[in-house]
Amino acid sequence: MNNLSYLTKYSLLATLLCLSFLSGCTTTPINLVPINVDKVSQAKAWEMKGKLAVRTQNENFSTNLYWLHTQFRDELRLTTMLGTTILSLTTEQGLTRLEVDGKVYQHNDAQQLLTNVTGWSIPVQALPLWITGQASADDLIDSFDEKNRPVILTTPLQSPSWHVEFQQWQQQSGAELPRMLQLKRADLRLKIQVSQWQALANQNVSTNKQDLGLMPDESKK
């Protein structure tokens, strides 16, 4: 197994067998509750559901995309149209765990691990910002629209550079964020559609604007 296109070509029998084990899976952790925010930057934790399309010179494929992002944990899953998980990438306490094709891999660099195992340079470390229409200090925003939202973003410190286009915007959880974005790098093109985005907060913590986000559970100390 050397690339993600292989992972999308499970037989129907294997898919149906996997569904029986996945039917009881949940998404949002029970200690997080939905909240509304004025700006996406106020949400220290969020989850999103959407679609990821990958295009190269030789092949095209698409999967469902789920992402749970908190201050302490990132969980990314790619699934088939029937809901079967074909790739799971979880980062917590500086360690990344990749589960794919029935095997488990670990590394302290999520991007490097994903590239080594799957062959795809999906920018998992930058995506939490880009998905929510934000840029890092090293990113260069080349243009803005009439509402002062980024239109084109590049990563000049990386070679080859990523070229990110924010094509459509929407409102979710009270905040404005991209609905469609396209990422280009050399001969790789990624399209991400954000269907659902939900800001989250710890249910035991005040949801005042200054306190939004996931906080450590003091009761476990």
Total of domains: 1
Helix content: 10-25%
Name the CATH class: Mainly Beta
Task: Give a quick account of the main beta sheet: strands, pairing sense, barrel closure.
Answer: 12 strands, antiparallel
CATH superfamily annotation: Lipoprotein localisation LolA/LolB/LppX
Mean pLDDT: 82
The name CATH uses for the topology is outer membrane lipoprotein receptor (LolB), chain A
In total, how many beta strands? 12
End-to-end separation: 42 Å
Query: Rough shape?
Result: globular
* Category from helices, strands and their pairing: mainly beta
Low-confidence stretches: 5-26, 206-221
CATH architecture: Clam
**How much of the polypeptide forms β-strand, as a percent range?**
35-45%
Protein name: Outer-membrane lipoprotein LolB
Signal peptide: 1-25
Function: Plays a critical role in the incorporation of lipoproteins in the outer membrane after they are released by the LolA protein.
Subcellular location: Cell outer membrane
